[in-house]
Design a protein that fits this description.
The chain has helices at about 15-20, 25-35, 35-50, 55-60, 60-75, 105-115, and strands at about 85-95, 95-105. By secondary structure, it is α+β, with helices and mostly antiparallel strands. The chain has a two-stranded antiparallel ribbon. A hairpin with a 3-residue loop joins strand 1 (about 85-95) and strand 2. The termini are far apart.
Amino acid sequence: MAVNNSLQSRSGGKPKFSVAIQTPMYRKLVNDTLGDPDRARRFVAAISSAVAVNPSLQECDAGTVLTAALLGESLNLSPSPQLGQYYMVPYKDKKRGTVAQFQLGYKGYILSLIHI
């Protein structure tokens, strides 16, 4: 009899981002990294929204999405595609499957120049 793991997608692969980000491990990682629980809640809501509107990002490994988003957060940029500050871009990787990578948008570049 097979055990149904709630973190696995129905296809038996890696967990979807919306499920993975709610696990205690990911919550602790985000809280420990950002330090402030309110900031962590806003961060999770913002990246969850960005992933929800992009079907290609939904197929990405959750850890790579989180890594790309934390890089944007460290630069005080928003992941909202409408703002164009940075993007989490999905790429196919032969070894890891689909992964998300951080891509600075031109508006994020302008903001980073203003803060210098």
